Amino acid sequence: MASTLAGALANIILDPVFIFVFRWGMMGAAAATVLGQILTAALAVWYLCHMKAVRLEGQIFRIHGQLAGNYLSLGICSFLSQISLVMAMAAIQNMTLKYSAIDPIFGQIQYTQIPMAVLGIVMKFFQIVISISVGLAAGCIPVVGYNTGAGRRDRARSLFIRLLAAEAIVGAVALLIVELFPQQLIGIFGAANESAYYTDYAIKCFRVYLCMMPLATVNKGTFIYLQSLGKAFASTAISMVREVLFGVGFALLIPLRFGLDGVLYSMPVSDLLTFLICLAVIVYTCRMLDFDCTNAQKLCEN
After folding, report:
1. Which of 51, 95, 182, 211 could pair with 203 in a Cys bridge, judged by C-beta atoms 3.0 to 4.6 Å apart?
2. What band does 277 get if pLDDT is binned at 50, 70 and 90?
């Protein structure tokens, strides 16, 4: 955590220095990001070389086939989830460009950049909320692994329920912010001097595109929790359905009927349908953990 925070703080400090003091513009922002990542990597390597519990020796770096297979199943799951997310974002951006070009207002040269600029702001806010959601779920992984290995499936089940509740709260707070204070959010990104079309579209984009945030955070928490239980295939399958089948599919199909607004509708529709799938998975997972816990108690009594 310290290495990650150090890199983030370095990025925040160096951004204004490189952009405004050195006048490097976008190159300065990129340089600050790269230097922050280098600092994070350097601190992580230093930590690995100074661990007290584990000593890095030559034999540790040998590849063990069985262990590698177990790790790869989880790693590939995360990889496919990230790639599918990129595909969904690319589809949404391309459809925004396509349909904004034929929109009566945004098809005009002076307004043509508004939809993409607003979409970038909304996606940035969405990424911040999802990062919180991922952090909550990722923090559960070692706890779930420990209790599952110790045969305490009851604790794993209780943690799952608490995680979903926390994810729903994060999503609900984010929803209240975007629904009640969209104009203030826009102002953070320097929209005070923009046209009325910019402000109106940004408010609409925040309120429509992110209207299912509580479901989106619960979905993300479910994906990651399934990984912690070793159910990499189920997690990957649901994630791919969300990002590729729904995310890309609806981004391509709904605008055919609703135009540029259809791009905005594709996000909440995808989250809603994914939640219905996740709901079935949540019920099944809770019953499975409860069943395992009951069997373990019977064995102890016998």
Report:
1. 182
2. very high
Q: Which amino acid belongs to residue 176?
A: L
Residue with tokens 């996000």: 267
Determine the Cα–Cα distance for residues 124 and 178; give it in Å rounded to an integer. Answer: 13
Cα distance between residue 174 and residue 185, in whole Å: 11
The one-letter code for the residue type at 199 is T
For the chain, the helix, strand and coil percentages under 3-state DSSP, each to the nearest 5: 85, 0, 15
pTM: 0.78
C-alpha 242/C-alpha 235 separation (Å) is 11
| pLDDT over 90 (residue 182) | no
CA count, 13 A, side-chain hemisphere, 136: 26
Give the residue carrying structure tokens 């945030």. Answer: 213
What Cα–Cα distance (Å) separates residue 175 from each residue in 84, 182, 187, 223, 247?
Answer: 24, 10, 18, 21, 20
184 CB-near residues (< 8 Å, 6+ apart) = none
CB contact at 8 A, 119 and 205:
yes
Helices 260-301/196-209 angle, 10° precision: 30
What's the CA gap between 222 and 234, in Å, rounded? 10
Question: Burial code of 169-196, b = ≥16 C-beta within 10 A, e = fewer?
Answer: ebbeebbebbeeebeebbeeeebeebee
Q: How many angstroms separate the CA atoms of 159 and 136, rounded?
A: 11
Determine the 3-state secondary structure of 52 from DSSP: coil
pLDDT in tens, 183-204: 888 877 765 556 788 888 999 9
**Cα(238)–Cα(277) distance, rounded to whole angstroms?**
8
CB atoms within 10 A of CB 124: 10
The DSSP H or E segment spanning 291 is: helix 260-301
> Tokens in use for 243?
């990002």
DSSP conformational letter for 20 = I
